Write the structure tokens for this entry.
Amino acid sequence: MKKLGKAFRKYDADAIVTGKARYTKEFVPQDALVVTLLRSPHASCIIRTIDTTRAEKVPGIVGIYTYKDVPKTRFTLAGQSYPEPSPADRLILDRVIRYHNEPVCIIAGRSKKACLEGMKRIKIDYEVKKPLLDPKEALDHPQIVHEEDVHYLSGDEIFGFEPERNLVGRIRRRFGEDFEEIYPRSKVKLSQEYSVFPQAHAMMESYRSYTYLDEYNRLHVISSTQVPFHIKRQLARALEIPTSRIRIKKPRVGGGFGGKQTSVTEIYPALVTMKTGLPAYLELDRRETFSATNSRHAMNIGVKIGSDEKGNIEAISIDALSDQGAYGEHAFTTLGLVGDKSLPLYPHIKSATFDGKVVYTNKMPGAAFRGYGAVQGIYALESAVNELAHKIQMDPVDLRLKNIVEEGDRTTAYQMKINSCRLKDCIRRGKELIGWDEIYPRKIKNGKIISVGMACAMQGSGIASVDTSTVEIRLNEQGEYTLFMSPTDTGTGTDTIMIKIAAEALDCDEEDIIPIVADTDITPFDPGSYASSGVYITGSAVYNAAEDLKDMIRREAAKSLNTYPSWIDIKNGNIYQGKKKIMSISSLAKELASGPGGKNIVGIGHFDSKVSPPPYMAGFAKIEIDPQKASIKVLEYGAVVDCGTVMSENLARVQVEGGIVQSIGYTLYEDTHWDKSGKMLEDTFLNYKIPTRKEVGQMKVEFCPSYEPTGPYGAKSIGELVSNTPAPAITGAILNGIGVAMNKIPITRNDLRKALEKTEFSKFQYEYF
């Protein structure tokens, strides 16, 4: 490869560092209406009366809209391919309020000051109910979160949807032999429960959208989103207008991590613009972003593992309960990945089962977040494997090497054929990186415990038999190329990789590629940035479009030269017949574009896949436990990744490092609670703690490339995989350090203090308070 596999600059690097990159806010004119949302102070209530009369008289107020003023078609905000595997359980505004800070009124004004003044003058009488907050109590609870008639658009039976039971969905999977026969016969049995709390996305750019009507009365939406085409479909349904009247454009996006796979803000300024005919802009502040959007799902997960005394794993069962919150975005699919992206790590077990339920509660909804259920599932399963190793007194590395997946396997769970895998190489190299043999299980130094832990992970590359992408590449009249595509680069470098793939396939300079990205009027359909689909799905479509265009160039050149297309070759921006250079691509383009038969030629590439090849990662944590302070410090984190062919080492490395940091926060710092009324308590960066550079230690990242035959140039995904190992690796290090399993994350100081009290380290005088 000439262009790929190296370290290179991002296409938009200069624009970002010089402040020229245009985010949503940069497109908003000064005369756009400001949109604000009055939110409910209660987590469960019904609006008895609402009076906006005094508020409407405030100077600068243009419109105030309540549940009486919005369409009555229910929809979902989940950015997923049609028909969405999420229930259509929302209205733009509803008389029934289901979580604290849910919008009650849309206020549009000439200034933020006017909107806030108007907000103070709105009078609402609520019938307040006790909120349903505990997911363990939600199933068949007499209080029903959704009493109205709601359904999945693709049918309720597929998902096990029973809203009258607060059940959003259920899953039951059985693989191999009967678990109830295999597990009881296992010589070693382990049964454990794990709990994970929600996690905030904490992206740099909060949610925001700008809307206006063009001269043809079409609704234009410029929004910080991961899913432009899905938003177009959602808005059409919610606003009850044809899709032909909607255009979505994605500008530069300041991070998403899955949060912007849900269309949080678009609907509100869109309604204002449709009502007033005026441009409108909504930007959520940080408190709203924390408490009134979406988060990673909280879950309770039970794991059972049976093995023989030598560590040969025979049976695994996973049973998950997911807290969906008030609305069903991504409920069923996130639950599914708890098992889908964990059980196949152990391919030779005799039996595997996965059972899951996801329930409604009166909390902010759970939705998409980097890792999408795999983070929770792998935390639970890999923690259980670490506990199994501890129970049979076996090195966790050796236990993995004895049981873990490798190339050529067909897994018992989900019957996956593994075409590319170097996970065992990743484990061996990660063990060296972290200095495992010098420390395992622990060392005591200056009264502090130094210990190591590890975990393995897998993910997918797009959604098999669902995700599709179409890309067009046009040869322009001067010989450069325009690349029309719709992935949504949220800061990861997706656009850069697509340009490189096109340049590699066309054998031209990157400067010859003009990208036009994510405009639903101009660029072809792509699901967007989620499910680790960028390189594998869109990248394959780019490659196919380039190959299609090359075939056209060969045919046109052959006509001009009166020869056969198979005799034509394209190299370095020129056309060859054999070893003889005949003409440049630029000359052919000018010839094609001129004269009576003038034309441009356009290559079209499609890609969908019946498989979702897993990337793999081995993660190793080296930590320091201070018994006196009941504190944990990550000293080093080693990560070795198999993402197929590495398209760009620097961009891939940043992805790995970012995922590790995010999940160190998930494991040790990012705690979320609700009070009895259903109000979220950690709703600013002052009280929701994310790790800084000081808290993440030294990161050591390497790659063990395999070659995936179905991916572009052998590539697989990387973006989500990298979040999956830190939680079980860190808890594994704690287990190796003090001999106590930590089965809840995040792990607080109080949790660690209680664990230490069960050990020989309880003699230390704590300085917790």
About this structure: Confidence is low (pLDDT under 50) at residues 765-769. The radius of gyration is 27 Å. The first helix runs from residue 13 to 17.
